[in-house]
TrEMBL record:
<dbReference type="InterPro" id="IPR016163">
    <property type="entry name" value="Ald_DH_C"/>
</dbReference>
<feature type="active site">
    <location>
        <position position="262"/>
    </location>
</feature>
<dbReference type="GO" id="GO:0019413">
    <property type="term" value="P:acetate biosynthetic process"/>
</dbReference>
<keyword id="KW-0560">Oxidoreductase</keyword>
<dbReference type="InterPro" id="IPR015590">
    <property type="entry name" value="Aldehyde_DH_dom"/>
</dbReference>
<dbReference type="InterPro" id="IPR016162">
    <property type="entry name" value="Ald_DH_N"/>
</dbReference>
<dbReference type="InterPro" id="IPR029510">
    <property type="entry name" value="Ald_DH_CS_GLU"/>
</dbReference>
<dbReference type="InterPro" id="IPR016161">
    <property type="entry name" value="Ald_DH/histidinol_DH"/>
</dbReference>
<dbReference type="Pfam" id="PF00171">
    <property type="entry name" value="Aldedh"/>
</dbReference>
<dbReference type="GO" id="GO:0004030">
    <property type="term" value="F:aldehyde dehydrogenase [NAD(P)+] activity"/>
</dbReference>
<feature type="domain" description="Aldehyde dehydrogenase">
    <location>
        <begin position="30"/>
        <end position="485"/>
    </location>
</feature>
<protein>
    <recommendedName>
        <fullName>Aldehyde dehydrogenase domain-containing protein</fullName>
    </recommendedName>
</protein>
<dbReference type="InterPro" id="IPR016160">
    <property type="entry name" value="Ald_DH_CS_CYS"/>
</dbReference>
<comment type="similarity">
    <text>Belongs to the aldehyde dehydrogenase family.</text>
</comment>
Amino acid sequence: MAATIDYTTSKGYKVKLQTGLFINNEFVNGSETIETINPSTGKVIAQVQAANKEDVDAAVKAASDAFHGPWRQMSSSKRAALMFKLADLIDRENEALSQVETLDNGKGITFSRNFDVKQIAITLRYFAGYADKIHGKVIDTDGALSYTRHEPIGVCGAIIPWNFPLMMLGWKLGPALATGNTVVVKTSEMTPLSALKVCELVVEAGFPPGVINIITGYGAIAGDALARHQKVAKIAFTGSTAVGRHIMKAASESNLKKVTLELGGKSPNIIFDDADLDQAVRWAHKGIFFNHGQCCCAGSRIYVQESIKDEFLKKFKEYTSQTKLGNPHDDDTFQGPQVSQTQFDRIMGYIEEGKKQGATCYMGGNRWGDEGYFIEPTVFTDVKEDMTIVKEEIFGPVVTVSTFKDVDDVLKMALDTDYGLAAAVFTKDTARAIDVSNRLQAGTVWVNCYNELDYNTPFGGFRQSGIGRENGEYALDNYIQVKTVKINVSRKP
Ligand code: NAP
Ligand code: MG
């Protein structure tokens, strides 16, 4: 049995932390340990067990045994009941899970409570509802009865990032379990603690051992072993485009496992001069600064129509200055620290690069406080479209503001990227909203809002932002394989 740790947060909340690898419904030791850091202070929270290749083998074996054993034999309605139960337990433990998420990731506690923890529960419930409604079709074929079965794939691997540790867990578990698969999830080395807390609830809910296995580990070791595993039938990855390429390569070099990828973005947010400007300012703020800019779909390129540029910037600065940056354990904190020293350095590097290339730092641009990884919300103006800060995903609280003349002008700039995850349009003109939405190359287009993610609408990328869709009914397709059964009635050979 791996150690559990009694931890007290800076605000006096007491919580039990699990540090093991969760395999076969037990917390076990791995081959080495990883330090998990509190990004608000830069100090170590706990040593967490880390998986090597043999540990990944053990997790995959557990998942494979469960898939061929109790999980396959269980009725779909019982499977759904377990998922509903887990969702209820997650809601019951909202406060503990929120505290752990905020401690390990640095997001504001109010967001952990009202968004992240609620999202995992609601996503599990949504997909639980599908568990007993997965079925094929009857197809009329001459002299034979043909029908399709929608069967599970087997052991599904999931590799998730650190920006929404619990929500990403829900996005992977929901469709995989509902369709009858078993899972091995590798969490990010940066944020392993909240998913391990969920594992306590997996046991309490009554899932058979091996159905859900959750391991911490380094990407290059545990992640790679999972992506290359011969007995993993599918891998779902969320993270950087660079690692996404690696996952596809690992799949092709091993057993051609099915791959879905949810990768990065550099999403344009287009604001026309007829938009409700106060609303557009608030949504644009949420678009870039929600989760400290650590969103794959962040609206990191704002395009404002020329005539409203000055007014937009003034209001945007005013609004941004009012939101609180500080201790994420305070109820009213909007922005906490970036997740790690590495991400902090990376973002500060982009800010320096922006200044060096001649952009104007209109607000922010500095470290905040003297411990932890806090960065002021940062706005660049006077940018050129070929600058690094306009081209590359920064994944932090940094936004560029450019101007445009008309629709063709802005679309030329908006489409000049290899990414295609999200985009937004602000206008009161419905015809223009529809026209621009149709012409944008993105998996999600928001009109007069931003960063509104729903568990029941598909999410994923055009171009190099990914392959496949998560959430909504579309997500189920990634976790089933279709079998045709043909029964001869009157055919002669
Ligand atoms: P990352 O390296 O892509 O990490 C995402 C996940 O992949 C983590 O669990 C990571 O493990 C794992 N991983 C890393 N190398 C791997 C490998 N060779 N094989 C298999 N799995 C591997 O992302 P990051 O380094 O944390 O962040 C870098 C950049 O990625 C960010 O700045 C941002 O641009 C982008 N990103 C995008 C998203 C998104 O939601 N689309 C999320 C996070 C990051 P470990 O972290 O444990 O090593
Ligand atoms: Mg990494």
